[in-house]
């Protein structure tokens, strides 16, 4: 009986940690992956470095080309894109 009373606080702490830290983080990671997977040409994005630009080309599964100024494009790893500022409408 005393052993069970000693284990219960640890189980409660783990449950609280799961619902307050682990689960929201997993949800945030999933949303980020979906956002990055939905990137397409014309989307205005912000990178982790704070660079704002427009997606000019989706190269492959891992990188995109972002135009940061007129005639200036950089290759960016998809996972470093933190935010999509403006989405373009899908072509009809």
TrEMBL record:
GO terms for biological process: protein transport. The SecYEG-SecDF-YajC-YidC holo-translocon (HTL) protein secretase/insertase is a supercomplex required for protein secretion, insertion of proteins into membranes, and assembly of membrane protein complexes. While the SecYEG complex is essential for assembly of a number of proteins and complexes, the SecDF-YajC-YidC subcomplex facilitates these functions. Part of the SecDF-YidC-YajC translocase complex. The SecDF-YidC-YajC translocase forms a supercomplex with SecYEG, called the holo-translocon (HTL). Belongs to the YajC family. This is Sec translocon accessory complex subunit YajC. It is found in: Cell membrane. InterPro entries: Preprotein_translocase_YajC. It comes from the Bacteria. Signal peptide: none annotated. It is a single-pass membrane protein. Keywords: Cell membrane, Membrane, Protein transport, Translocation, Transmembrane, Transmembrane helix, Transport. NCBIfam families: yajC. GO terms for cellular component: plasma membrane. It holds the Pfam family YajC. The chain crosses the membrane at residues 6-22. The keyword Transmembrane helix applies.
């Amino acid at each position: 009986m005393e052993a069970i009373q000693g284990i219960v606080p640890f189980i409660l702490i783990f449950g609280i940690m799961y619902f307050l830290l682990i689960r929201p983080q997993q949800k945030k990671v999933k949303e980020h992956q979906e956002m990055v997977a939905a990137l397409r040409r014309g989307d205005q994005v912000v990178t982790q470095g704070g660079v704002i630009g427009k997606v000019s080309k989706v190269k492959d599964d891992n990188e995109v080309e972002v135009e940061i100024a007129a005639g200036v494009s950089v290759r960016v790893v998809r996972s470093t894109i933190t935010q999509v500022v403006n989405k373009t409408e899908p072509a009809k």
